[in-house]
Design goal:
This protein is an alpha+beta fold and 181 residues long. It is built from five helices and nine strands. Helix 3 packs antiparallel against helix 5.
Length: 181
């Protein structure tokens, strides 16, 4: 009976219509198609500074992102999940998980960042840390010195390190006291 099953299986495989090649054949795949299908890009990478939180301090972390690393790529990384190695080293984010960047515009040395309303879910010390993560990450990019915030298209005040609210664009000097020694 087992012999009959093997003969049947051999007949099915032989008759499936897939030809056998004697040698491997190269197949071209477009990188854009791989990315659209949810694949990973294996091209050039750039080391980019992202600020995360450990305890109540900011920590500068380097992530390898696709080059050239646009503002959108950097912010997608910042707002994305913390990696497993980062979690194991005690790092986290204060930015609410569902937060999205609605728009990013450079106006000279000032970056205008428009965030979704989910960002407003954070408050107190966590809000200071969340804003600081965004500001320190943005100002680590060459040419950006200040960040102005909007929520859902509406300009908004943000807290600085000492807890005071600022309706002006904020910079790294407003959060430098939060950087871990």
């Amino acid at each position: 009976m087992r012999r009959l099953g093997l003969v049947f299986m051999a007949a099915v495989v032989a008759g499936c219509g897939i030809p056998f090649d004697v040698a491997p054949e190269a197949v071209e795949v477009e990188v854009a198609a791989v990315a659209e299908a949810g694949g990973h890009f294996l091209g050039d990478l750039a080391a980019v500074s992202i600020y995360l939180v450990r305890d109540a301090s900011l920590v500068n972390v380097t992530r390898d992102l696709p080059a050239p690393s646009t503002l959108e790529i950097v912010f997608d990384s910042l707002l994305g999940p913390v990696t497993e190695p980062e979690q194991r080293s005690g790092l986290r984010t204060a930015i609410p998980r569902a937060t999205e960047v609605l728009a990013i515009d450079e106006e000279g040395a000032t970056l205008q960042v428009d965030l979704s309303q989910e960002f407003a879910a954070v408050g107190g010390e966590e809000e200071v840390l969340a804003v600081a993560q965004i500001v320190m990450t943005a100002t680590s990019i060459e040419g950006i010195e200040l960040v102005a915030f909007r929520l859902g298209g509406v300009p908004t005040d943000v807290p600085v390190a000492n807890g005071a609210l600022s309706d002006d664009p904020v910079g790294a000097e407003d959060y430098v006291s939060l950087i871990a020694p």
